[in-house]
Design a protein that fits this description.
mainly alpha; 77% helix; globular; 3 domains; 5 helices
């Protein structure tokens, strides 16, 4: 899938943005104060698991290849699953506390961006151009202005 040459990951990123926007909007709309937050997070995680299992079955049928995973990848996948559940639970609690989606999501997503940049630069030894650092600064400034 070479839609954008070396930058075909941008297409996937657009789907991530659309998916998260739809999910958090549905979460905010569906959240009521009579809802048990952790049950809500469990249902979200379970539905995500079912969707992934369906995609694995479809992949298996279409590719006709064996499904394999290394043990180190399996452990990493389990840890990622725990982290995603914690993320879902924290998101549910955020909306349960009646956080406005128009502020809560930009703030949390900018935090994710900043934390990801720190991990990328300091632990994965990725490089950032001055233009990218400037863009990150503008992003953080935008979030500060949203909260004024």
């Amino acid at each position: 899938m070479k839609l954008l040459g070396q930058h075909n990951w941008i297409i996937h990123t657009c789907f991530v943005v659309l998916g998260y926007t739809a999910a958090f909007t549905a979460m905010k709309i569906g959240m009521g104060h009579e809802t048990t937050p952790f049950l809500y997070a469990c249902i979200m995680s379970a539905s995500t698991c079912v969707a992934h299992l369906v995609s694995v079955v479809i992949f298996k049928i279409k590719s006709r290849s064996a499904l394999t995973i290394q043990s180190s990848c399996f452990i990493a996948a389990l840890l990622i699953g725990v982290a995603l559940f914690l993320n879902n639970a924290a998101s549910v609690l955020m909306f349960f506390a009646d956080a406005p989606i128009s502020l809560a999501m930009p703030i949390s997503n900018t935090g994710i961006v900043v934390a990801s940049v720190i991990v990328g630069v300091f632990f994965l030894h990725e490089r950032m151009t001055r233009k990218q650092v400037f863009g990150l600064g503008l992003s953080v400034l935008g979030i500060v202005l949203l909260n004024v």
